[in-house]
Amino acid sequence: MRAFISRQPALFVLASSFLAAWVIWGVSPLFEEVNEGFKRQLDLLGLLAPSLAALFVTTSLKGLSFIPNLRTHLIAFVFAFTLMLAAMVSVFDMTFSPLSIFGALMLSDLAAYVVSLSLTHKKSGHLFRSVADYKIPPVWLLVGLLIFPFILLGSALATGMTLADIGGFFEPYATLGERLSVVVVTLFALATFGGALGQELCWRGFLMPRMVRRFHPFIVSLLIGALWALWYAPLYFNGFYEGGLEGVLIRFLWNVPLAIVFTWVFIRGRGSVLLAILMHASLSIGLFVLPLSENALEYAVFALIAIALFISLVDPLLRRKNDAFEHLRDRSDLYY
Prior knowledge:
It is built from 16 helices and no strands. The protein is 73% helix and 0% strand. Helix 6 packs across helix 7 (126-132). By secondary structure, it is mainly alpha-helical.
């Protein structure tokens, strides 16, 4: 297996990401009548598959230990488990039961593993360093954090929503302290369990830098965007998302331009996976907090497509593969 991984690391990561996630999402509906909260936890577990696959391949190829620093892992686990328990009530609307507590332990341990293994090997190559490196260009940090919330907020306002409507998420919480605590829990829960941490080590951290060595960044964005959308497809048939086949088609319209914007910020941010995680988290939070109507979501899709096309035409880094690859801060282990 190691010989195959060394010859086709990107293909192995993709195959592992799809296989693990799709198997989990195929099995999860079996638990819907037993414990709906545990079913949802299994769906969230599948969202961690891409980053775990990227970590497995990178660790294997570099001959590093798969066991993280135990102290780092314990700290990360305690934080993740505490966060998960709080999020079960305020974010994911789950009830406590022995099965859901087991699910919380499993999810928290794997999320902690992603973080702790990255920090343990933070001096050992691009993927690990770019997760742990906090030196993000300030301008691109702001762009990454604000671009998706602005698109979603603008789409909401364009369809007639008022700021009072948009603030409806906070109505159940009377005091400022309660609202702040809910914001903090929601922020970290969606970043940790909502897909950002579980996906970005793969799509941007592992695949993107290797693919821009061979193809133009615009083409890479189209490929990753299409694969990313296809990877989500089972969630539209197992009850996690609504929409069925139509939802999958809309996901393609959303994820392909989304990948172009991610590519642009990722390359301009010197290849920071931490920045990609924060971007993904800001998108998840915007979609969760803002009460977007169907019309507002359509506006958001069209706005995202327009912005992606504009970026592709204006920024030369998205048109020249060598320039994009050379712009990454750390390229030391991107040649396999």
